[in-house]
Amino acid sequence: MEDLPVILVIEDDQAIQGIVDEALTDGGFEPAIAASGAEAVTLLKGGQIKYRALVTDINLLGRIDGWEVAKRAREIDPAFPIIYITGAAADQWAAKGVPNSILLTKPFAPAQLVTAVSQLLNAGSPPTAPA
Amino acid sequence: MEDLPVILVIEDDQAIQGIVDEALTDGGFEPAIAASGAEAVTLLKGGQIKYRALVTDINLLGRIDGWEVAKRAREIDPAFPIIYITGAAADQWAAKGVPNSILLTKPFAPAQLVTAVSQLLNAGSPPTAPA
Amino acid sequence: MEDLPVILVIEDDQAIQGIVDEALTDGGFEPAIAASGAEAVTLLKGGQIKYRALVTDINLLGRIDGWEVAKRAREIDPAFPIIYITGAAADQWAAKGVPNSILLTKPFAPAQLVTAVSQLLNAGSPPTAPA
Amino acid sequence: MEDLPVILVIEDDQAIQGIVDEALTDGGFEPAIAASGAEAVTLLKGGQIKYRALVTDINLLGRIDGWEVAKRAREIDPAFPIIYITGAAADQWAAKGVPNSILLTKPFAPAQLVTAVSQLLNAGSPPTAPA
Amino acid sequence: MEDLPVILVIEDDQAIQGIVDEALTDGGFEPAIAASGAEAVTLLKGGQIKYRALVTDINLLGRIDGWEVAKRAREIDPAFPIIYITGAAADQWAAKGVPNSILLTKPFAPAQLVTAVSQLLNAGSPPTAPA
Amino acid sequence: MEDLPVILVIEDDQAIQGIVDEALTDGGFEPAIAASGAEAVTLLKGGQIKYRALVTDINLLGRIDGWEVAKRAREIDPAFPIIYITGAAADQWAAKGVPNSILLTKPFAPAQLVTAVSQLLNAGSPPTAPA
């Protein structure tokens, strides 16, 4: 099992990015940082690397915010696990989030992130029709 | 208990509208038909009637489709129960649907609709933090 | 399959009792009406009839309210399905309700009651550790 | 919506078969009765009719029991909704049942069957990765 | 993200308190220890600190046990995440626990506690009507 | 709390076994390694040690594979938590897995395993009838 599950991360805030990076690495995941929403979409479309989940902040530099990146990811793979991180936009999740996603509100503990990614990956791997 | 729970319904197809109307009435709900997405949004914003759930087709006459009406409904009430009905757009639910919604694919049985509305209402009434 | 699943019902309000009785009967259940919380506890303890679920109003005549009857039922059978009906006490469910119960807020549609009972019975029959 | 969702039913007991047939029809489904487990597997493999769910008794005439038919159905379609009906074999579900299935214990109310089928169909239509 | 999510902990047993304290800290939470059930209720009512969850033993020194503290916490905030820890009282959870709570039976692994807190926090932050 | 929850592990691949062993130990569990499916069944039947969950690879040396060990474990305890690990057999879970089990697909992160075990243990300890 030389490979680790690669998690695509979009986070402009350097401090939060460091926390996310360390939490995922400690949990045994391999974080891959995208610099912007547009880059993340390009990486997901490219298909060179098999990303297993997306962790994204809501407010991003550039034209594409976190809500939009998640939609694009789901157009490519309808079962793609999505975790949103936000400080201010939590009340928008019910309207702008995608189904079966998890939203983490800042401040969050690293364990919450690792649990969120794990829950979505554990549920998603086999074909799970009903809950 | 003179009142019945009122369910807002947006369905252009007369045949389906009849099925939805009869199924909800038989289940003990009171269906309220909106002629378009725009009218539905106006009714939800008006707040004159306390709607308990939204049942909406995806492809609607006018500028606002079912995905958009659902988002508007959730901006007004983040816990509002949403049931989508669709013949062709099922694969878009994972990207365009709102969290905690149910999608019914045509053809569906009336019992599926009644169960979907009931499930969402039963889960939503009390403050249910975690599942 | 000569027997029907018997559902114990405690409801002082005659109008609601009639609705509950008819809804359960139409769904294929056999409602058994208890006149008070105390009588319901006696019936559950007696064990003469194998009740499959409890449907109870919150405000009851006598000393034992619906919250208390449910607790007693769970002391006898920890997996016993509980459905509360209430007009005014919905906000107390999170503090006074038992785990894995469903609360119906008046006005409710008969289909909601039948779906609630069915959901709990369908989930509860086999040993279902995790969800 | 000229078509109805077709539900494949395997039930040797004539009385139960009648109840299942009537409950599904009343709910708006179209029951299709298979005479044995072997015939059901043939029908599922044939692919002439798009069955939407399987309702099966456990003890069947012939060499293939309900546990086995369900496994075969899931080999053909990993997300296929399965509802088992049983009088005596409920305690075997945890070892012999397939994931995300529902078991109904006799006696059951027709509403339980209709709710079970509806729950599985409602959950299964869109790609639902995590619960 | 200078702040950490603060978790209120009531645990009389020094050894268990040490395990809980270390597990939460390692997970990135900030544990706040209350000396008794009464003190915990005072802290929750005071509202000086925004506690995100309650971890409580069942048997506590003083007049208020863990079941009661949880009820009080839910009266203040109906969506408040509750985790019970118990050695002997597990069979009472179905009657005395609050809805949507988690019970850990001793002996438990620290990872179980961290996962339990994370699951409840991840589910609870956005308005999640149905499961 | 001198004891730790003991998790029975069947994994032929030495590298994976090392990862599983370390992940469980770090999470605060006590892994107990069985050399084969047959030995695991013997240990579960023996009842000398109270195992709390089973983590098993699918392809095992000897006559009994992981699917079969899980069935045997569920015959002994219908609520026994099961986690499958597999590289190639993920698509067989829907047909061969037991209800309420979790399947981890290689490569997986250690955090996924710990979260999976914790989720099943947290859900399973109290009598949880409906989800």
Structural overview:
The structure is a homohexamer of 131-residue chains. Helices cover 41% and strands 20% of the residues of chain A. Chain A is of the alpha/beta class. Chain A has a 5-stranded parallel beta sheet with strand order 2-1-3-4-5, sandwiched between helices. In chain A, helix 2 (37-46) packs parallel to helix 3 (66-76). Mean pLDDT of chain A is 91; it is low at 125-131. Chains in contact: A-B, A-D, A-E, A-F, B-C, B-D, B-E, C-D, C-E, C-F, D-F, E-F.
Query: Could you tell me the strand content of chain A as a percent range?
Result: 15-25%
How far apart lie the N and C ends of chain A? 29 Å
Q: Detail the poorly predicted runs of chain A.
A: 125-131
Q: What is the 3D form of chain A?
A: globular
State Rg of chain A.
14 Å
Q: Look at the helices and sheets of chain A and give the structural class.
A: alpha/beta
Q: What's the rounded overall pLDDT mean of chain A?
A: 91
Supply database-style keywords.
homohexamer; about 130 residues; 5 strands; globular
How are the secondary structure elements laid out?
Six copies of one chain form a homohexamer.
Chain A: E1 6-10, H1 14-27, E2 30-34, H2 37-46, E3 51-57, H3 66-76, E4 82-86, H4 93-96, E5 102-105, H5 110-124
Helix pairs in contact in A: 1-5, 2-3
Structure in a nutshell:
The structure is a homohexamer of 131-residue chains. Chain A has 131 residues and is an alpha/beta fold.
